[in-house]
Amino acid sequence: MASIVNITEKLGSQAAAKAFTLTSAVWFAFATSFGMIAAGYLIAPDFMANIEFIQFGRSRPIHVNLVLFGFVTPGLLAAALYYAPRLLRTHLYSQRLGVVTAILWNLTLVIGVISLGMGYSQGREYAELPWAVDLMIAGLFGLVIFNLFMTVHRRQEPILYVSIWYACAAVVLTAVGYCLGNVIWKPDSGALLGIPDAILLWFYGHNIFGLLLTPLALGVAYYVLPLATRSPLYSHTLSLIGFWSLIVVYTHVGTHHLLQVPVPTWLKAISIVDSVGMVIPVMVFLINIWFTVKGKLGDIHADIGAKFVFTGTIMYFFANIQGSFMALPQVQRVTHFNNWVVGHAHLGVFAFAGITALGGLYFILPKITKKPLYSRYLADLQYWLILIGVSVMIIDLTIVGLLQGNAWLNGETVYRVLPEIHLYYVIRASAGLFILSGAYLGLYNIVRTLFFNPGAATE
Amino acid sequence: MYYPYFISYMLAGLVIALLVFAWAMKNDQFRDQQRARFLPLFDAPQRKSARASRVSRIEVYTLFGLACVGLCSSFAVVIFALLRVE
To answer: A233 vs chain B: nearest CA distance in angstroms?
Structure first.
């Protein structure tokens, strides 16, 4: 207990946001490292042969879970823990609880990585983590909910700004959805049986992104962009319409992953209609935020955090257009069960939510440390490395997906297609190197800003 | 038979969402929307707007170019997929 008090005091004011910022930066580097290892296996299956801990079947889920729970979620939460008290005109309920949450969060991730590396996986996509780790993650979201809701309860500002709605909804929906999707009441398998399990898994699989990363990222964008451009939000009413329509529509889209599977037709129909209906909340958000920053591009470029976040909004546009089209059965005949979906996942999780998380971190860093960023140049370099890397990777994976989808439709065998796509896997790994370099540059920049920053104090 | 559980869960979600919505209505969360637009700017220091530099404009054009390429590719795939429908 005394050591937690010491750590909180050492981190100073905004200790919780600082702890989550560091968590995000560190695990971003680890997550991309495991991603590179997995990309290496796709080029040369004997790559690092006989090292069981990092074989493809283990490094891939480690990469995915670390990006999800290690990099993007803590990054967005860091921003939320900073902006929530300011928007509510109060203090965070407990900085100490925030720091404890961050420490336990890191401990959970370490246990998760070791478990998956040792082969303790429940074998369901995005729900691979074993039961004990599932319980820890559910508990961590409980701690964040408590801290956030007590802050809301003690607010001086009567109106909840849209970012608060998004942050609260994200943590509550994820805590519930995580327990359900991981079938937490069945510790041995973490799964139901047969088709119902597939339905439940994809309900969870899509919502762990759609109801965690998306609302948290939109909350950050709604806070950062008006502030960076010194412009009031174009319409708060419109933003609330976007929030409620997202809550209504997004919860039902998961079954669009199972259109070729014998699930009930009514469920497929709901998933397709709601997937296309996602255009409404997305366009509401984009129209609102782009009108807010209209004519203020100079301000966006002047602030590296806003620059990342604005880029994230553009990527959100593509992720949505692509996602809505992909839910159409005719389109899915070509695009599903191949690398097209992997490209879409990188577009949504990394190019939209990940880049927005980085924007949130860079925006709050000078404010929580009360010093300028250690190096704006490094942050700009990271921006371009990541933007080039992820763009090339998405285009590359899209092409691979089209090759695979058409080969499948033509009845070609897998072994005849693999040599055709080998070159694209090499390009994908090269693009990954850009992102990897960006992750380590960002880690250096953030650690220097937090702990070894010679810059003069601001404010 | 899991579907009754799924449907129960969906109904529970709907009821909770409606309750939260009712709370928001009762607590005037949808009133005074004009003031709500300015909430992020509360206690933000005023400063002069920055002008976009040449480099900034090139960056914007690059992003716009990427956006167009992405959009064209997406539409091309949709048209291609629809043409293949037998």
So the answer is: 5
Q: Who has greater pLDDT, A443 or B62?
A: A443
Would you list the DSSP string of B13-75? HHHHHHHHHHHHHHTTTTS-HHHHTTGGGTTPPP-PPPPP-HHHHHHHHHHHHHHHHHHHHHH
Q: Report DSSP state, residue A180.
A: H
At residue A457, the pLDDT reads: 65
Which domains, and CATH codes, for chain A? 2-451 (1.20.210.10)
Q: Do B82 and A330 touch (CB under 8 A)?
A: yes
Chain A residue whose CA is closest to B51: A298
Query: In this predicted structure, what is the pLDDT of residue A98?
Result: 97
Q: Classify residue B86: in a domain, yes or no.
A: yes
Cβ of A391 within 8 Å of Cβ of B77? The answer is: no
ipTM of the complex in this document:
0.86
Q: Do B44 and A230 touch (CB under 8 A)?
A: yes
Closest CA to A160 of A88, A92, A244: A88
Dump pLDDT digits (tens) for A220-251: 999 999 999 999 999 999 999 999 999 989 98
Q: Is residue A440 scored above 60 in pLDDT?
A: yes
Residue B67 covered by a domain: yes
Q: B10: domain range?
A: 1-32
CB contact under 8 A, A325 and B33: no
Q: Are A142 and A175 in contact, with CB atoms under 8 Å apart?
A: yes
Chain B touched by A86 (CB under 8 Å): yes
CB contacts of B51 in chain A (<8 Å) are 298
| Count of pairs with CB atoms under 8 A, one residue in A, one in B | 130
Structural domains in chain B (count): 2
Give me the pLDDT at residue B12, please: 84
Same domain, B57 and B86: yes
Does position B80 have pLDDT exceeding 90, yes or no? no
